[in-house]
Write a structure and sequence with these properties.
4 copies of one chain form a homotetramer.
Chain A lengths: L3 H4 L6 H17 L6 H5 L9 H17 L12 H5 L23 H21 L3 H30 L20 E4 L2 E5 L15 E5 L2 E4 L5 H9 L11 H10 L7 E3 L5 E5 L2 E4 L11 H10 L7 H8 L30 E7 L25 E5 L15 E3 L8 E2 L3 E3 L1
Parallel strand pairs in A: 8-11
Antiparallel strand pairs in A: 1-4, 2-3, 4-12, 5-6, 6-7, 8-9, 9-10
Helix pairs in contact in A: 2-6, 2-7, 4-6, 4-7
Chain lengths: ~425, ~425, ~425, ~425
Amino acid sequence: MPDAYAMISEEESASGLGAAFRAVRDRTLALTAGLGPEDMVVQSMPDTSPTKWHLAHTSWFFEHFILIPLGGGKMWRPGWDYLFNSYYEALGPRHPRPARGLLTRPPLAEVLAWRAHIDSAMEDLLTRDNSPELTALTLLGLSHEQQHQELLLTDIKHLLAQNPLRPLAATAPRGTIPSLGWIDHPGGLMEVGCRSGGFAFDNEGPRHHVWLAPFQIADRPVCNGEWLRFMADGGYSTPSLWLSDGWARAQAEGWEAPLYWYQGEDDRWWTFTLEGCRPVDPAEPVCHVSQFEADAFARWAGTRLPTEAEWETAMQHRFNPGPAFGSAIRRHPFSMNGADAGGQVWEWTASAYLPYPAYRPAEGAIGEYNGKFMSGQMVLRGASIATPPGHSRPSYRNFFPPHARWQFSGLRVARDA
Amino acid sequence: MPDAYAMISEEESASGLGAAFRAVRDRTLALTAGLGPEDMVVQSMPDTSPTKWHLAHTSWFFEHFILIPLGGGKMWRPGWDYLFNSYYEALGPRHPRPARGLLTRPPLAEVLAWRAHIDSAMEDLLTRDNSPELTALTLLGLSHEQQHQELLLTDIKHLLAQNPLRPLAATAPRGTIPSLGWIDHPGGLMEVGCRSGGFAFDNEGPRHHVWLAPFQIADRPVCNGEWLRFMADGGYSTPSLWLSDGWARAQAEGWEAPLYWYQGEDDRWWTFTLEGCRPVDPAEPVCHVSQFEADAFARWAGTRLPTEAEWETAMQHRFNPGPAFGSAIRRHPFSMNGADAGGQVWEWTASAYLPYPAYRPAEGAIGEYNGKFMSGQMVLRGASIATPPGHSRPSYRNFFPPHARWQFSGLRVARDA
Amino acid sequence: MPDAYAMISEEESASGLGAAFRAVRDRTLALTAGLGPEDMVVQSMPDTSPTKWHLAHTSWFFEHFILIPLGGGKMWRPGWDYLFNSYYEALGPRHPRPARGLLTRPPLAEVLAWRAHIDSAMEDLLTRDNSPELTALTLLGLSHEQQHQELLLTDIKHLLAQNPLRPLAATAPRGTIPSLGWIDHPGGLMEVGCRSGGFAFDNEGPRHHVWLAPFQIADRPVCNGEWLRFMADGGYSTPSLWLSDGWARAQAEGWEAPLYWYQGEDDRWWTFTLEGCRPVDPAEPVCHVSQFEADAFARWAGTRLPTEAEWETAMQHRFNPGPAFGSAIRRHPFSMNGADAGGQVWEWTASAYLPYPAYRPAEGAIGEYNGKFMSGQMVLRGASIATPPGHSRPSYRNFFPPHARWQFSGLRVARDA
Amino acid sequence: MPDAYAMISEEESASGLGAAFRAVRDRTLALTAGLGPEDMVVQSMPDTSPTKWHLAHTSWFFEHFILIPLGGGKMWRPGWDYLFNSYYEALGPRHPRPARGLLTRPPLAEVLAWRAHIDSAMEDLLTRDNSPELTALTLLGLSHEQQHQELLLTDIKHLLAQNPLRPLAATAPRGTIPSLGWIDHPGGLMEVGCRSGGFAFDNEGPRHHVWLAPFQIADRPVCNGEWLRFMADGGYSTPSLWLSDGWARAQAEGWEAPLYWYQGEDDRWWTFTLEGCRPVDPAEPVCHVSQFEADAFARWAGTRLPTEAEWETAMQHRFNPGPAFGSAIRRHPFSMNGADAGGQVWEWTASAYLPYPAYRPAEGAIGEYNGKFMSGQMVLRGASIATPPGHSRPSYRNFFPPHARWQFSGLRVARDA
């Protein structure tokens, strides 16, 4: 049971779950290496959360939904329920999201002590209890924590990028645009959605039929070199390429390149990464673009975004995110090789995030996990360099509003056959 | 050829088109009866437009897209292009939408003179030219004008409702909740979208296959009596019934009933209509609710909203909006009878407004008509009491953001079979 | 008793007051010549009010504060109290100021009928009753109406300037910068504030002592030619000339010239007037500048703004606004001659609008007239081309926030002796 | 020369200045005792600054205005000029004020290292150089740092008060309302403003004449017990007591008590202090009220706020702030004794913050220190418990916008004799 991917496999036993628990929890802390207490308390915009809050909220999830109801412990500190509930209306009032960055107290040290306490209480409980209910809730809690691992990285990147003092990274060799191939699919009556066995979020099911017309989908994501051509061809100043809402947003916020790109004194495009600033590499997948930008690019290229059903159908036997994360995370951007099958950037689709046919959320507060966000968001598929190993799968539905750019989000184009 | 519904029928000849043109244009003016110049110039919120602007913009459409390119005339006044272009980016800069209400000049009288001029130039051109291009563009222009007829009514209603002086209408007899039946549908591989022959907007096609699971759909829209039960049962104060964005919007704007409803000194619910204020009638279809409210209601009722494919499939042989509009418009609300098959309120669906497979917008500025709005909006199907006769059809896709309430919008519930 | 100046003179009898009443009321209506109902209902920003509202509110003042309490009549229409109260908290809730432009009803014709009714009721009352109370309240009501005459002009100018269709006026001959002289004042213990006898607003008193150091004040306002030099010398882009709040406002709103100025295709500066657009005339007093701009100009010129005590002391025997208004109003801008002693533009001072020593507002709602605005505003002295004849005097204190520009506001510089 | 008050005395030599420098700088650091790095980096609203920023900015002031121009050193780190310039436009672009809380880097440790470096460089320079220019600039830098000492305390108090976890302090005995006496002043021609000799800010001069009418001023500030009576008498819900802007602000922000007061479950009023939450003590001076509230209170009490000239004239021989600060600071609120002559809370006046006659700001960037803020602010006189020992004097002019509440601000009433 050495890695977290096995953790969510079908055969997993309760004892293996304890090892998985430890691995996921440790990995969260490992991601904070190099950050000081100042870095971990500040909130850079209402959409992001401080690192310290992520550390606390993921512990709260275990305490609130597992330890207290299943007899594994009591509330650690009065009032923390209020501070670290993210959005569960059923649990009563909570600290307003845009004010998470005002919580200088409890200080980091106390939050870390709480984490240690939760870890030990959970491990103790997992030793004593191997009920299906505990297993299911623990898997949910770990998957939830893995989602926050990615958010922790996107959020800290956004914060550090606000600092006007920009360190330069050692400049890497620059690549060229890799070749592009098309995957053909004949369409027809297909099945999509998660199968039974193995963990999946509720929004990935029920598995159901969809009818697809024949289509083609690219064998790799769009790369920076292609994006630079789009920019050079006036992509950001040609309204006919854009959806109306996208154009309005791009004008209001002055978009002229992906988030974190800026023009250096040498007139080249540079990008801010967690390792410092580096020239944009044409060979790497474009990242930190909104769905609005992705849609405009696809139109410019004479293509379109795939629907989520097309993506899942075409990619389900090709998608293998493999070992991501870890030391690699600080090195984003990163290069593609010709055999890339995704997993470096989340890929925007043309699909709105809506419930699958016959979808029903769970009863109680846990039912607020996914269902209540099914409005105003678009689906992303795949995984990114910031996604924890083992956390994604072909049926995984990530979702963000179409203007969101601070995630590790890119695109793959498609076209009618 | 006496009515506009014939206008958009298949067999229509170019000479019939002239009569249809006159009928549609006259009907627009007829809708302004009872309005003074003050009522026609003010804009009540950024989403609405002044009546005078609707009168001018619909004329501009014929001048700009037909008369000038097809040799039927010149620009009437310099600068009016800038004032009365609605949203066509391809045509250059235009007057900002939220500032339409600042255009006290040209005064109403000049706009009416322009309308008369356009009418006569168009009728002249239709006599001389029976090319398919002119026919197609004229049908588009008339359908466009019919859309604005409905908007003119929704917008003037919104404006007049802002006035704190509320006239009382003669009180109508109050009905009771009509009985509700369910229409069964076995699902399977279905075809949806407009067929060739007859006018349809580009967003209604291409016709294509969808796979549907078996479902049931109600045989009438939700009525006020049912909505009052939802309210009495805490519908507006129970977050678990609501989508997250919907709940946030309802709290921010203090929703506790449909738009235009208010509680009288007698504690009963009243509603503002274009004929004055009247008690809410339990027998009438609920109107002026957002998609967020419709979705919450459906969840409360143990049902759901239908998808647009379900709606179209189930309703295509039952939908017959019949003679709407005219004198009836000022009398909204209105009663349902048991045989109601829609057509009194637009019905929110569970579907995001997205392009159909293989959809392509037209070339040029006219291509901005529908395609560029395919983001952030939800589909409504059917027609309302404010829809011009002959303007709707089973494949018609109306669309608004999920929080919009000032349209004549209600709902019909569905459920899995 | 033919003119309104006599109206507010000491000797005025009650019968003379009737003639003055008629003269002031008629003049208000005369100012609306050339405006259509559309022009009179729209509100161009929250600070301005529609013409129709001005017409109604000035009638409401007579009805509410005179006719009803003194037995001259009843409320004309129920609910109008709510609509046309401007800001008197003591009178209960009222229609929100930024929503005055949504009141398309009552229509203009009804407001005019109300005015006629009020006029006749007031004239009747003035014939029957010559009590000092009625005289005092009528003088207040007429002075109030005169204030609204000026606001009506500034507000309609602001509205018409929003229209992108800009008519050109016949171009007037352009003058040159007139010569400037300095008036010397030795300072010392002076008296300022209104004297007893004759009408004055409560904020002009009590008359009191101030100590002034010796100073000099210019013998004419700053003119456009001087302002163009300030602009050419980088006045709008040199932060050291500006107060901090002024600089922030200028940047936020992109100020680079007075309000209503714009650069024509011929690169010259033009200005919008109520008669159409004309080239800026160097000989005319600069107008439509904020106190922030006036202060920056004075600093640039090596001078300063006068305090209100300096202005009143130096100007009290030189100030004679003379016949303003009437046909001249539509011709603003206007020329200065060498002997100008003010009265064409209001002149910003360096003084905050604060109560004079021992100032006490009147009891009751009428006490809200002036006192409650003594925060955040700066004093202007003099009069403008839009000020009604006879309405101003040397002790008159006009006041607006330092960023306000839509008044007919200029400046006169001063310096230490 | 042991204390900082001597530091700013007339006789002070350059060697004494070194001791004063060390004392002031050390005191700043002492104020941060008990704060963690998280507390010191977060910004609670745009008006406040993080503690770390205060620590850095006060060092920047010495580096930029003294060490670099007078040959005492070079810039410590490139880019920090941009980060830690507060508002000097003459020095070029700077980090936006509302984004100071996003500067997680440089971390606290680096800022502290910089402080140590600046201290040693300044002490070295003061040993070598005893020019009047160095003395004057050092005195300015120290006075500037003392101002930031008070701001550091007000800002950290505001931040910690945002935390929903409210610690309770040991409850102190509660006092009663102390007796109130009136100080009589006959008025006449008075002199105000700083005298030559001793340090003073430029805005405290030039010394000049003012004419005062006879007046009375209270012999102590208003206390909490009196404020509770104002509240019980509907002070916060009676518009006639308020200035128009004040009423609008109070409604918009829901004021019903001073800032930091809240009603406990025992229905008593409590207040947040830097030592924890405690019941409001009727004997203590009221604190954390805006000028709008102070003005409303004075009107309710049948009094008024004094002008700054009245305050200075009446208090100049009674004002002795004495030893403030230090251990006492965490204990605010605090009690008054009968002999109180001010110095515990800043006292709002009725005077707008405007230049004295013949005031001229210094040349260059340093001239931006006080002059450019002379708009939209009101003067406070005296000193507070958070004011450093020796920092205030009778001519001292503190200033904030009339709605500001997060300073230690109270009031003293006056009335016409």
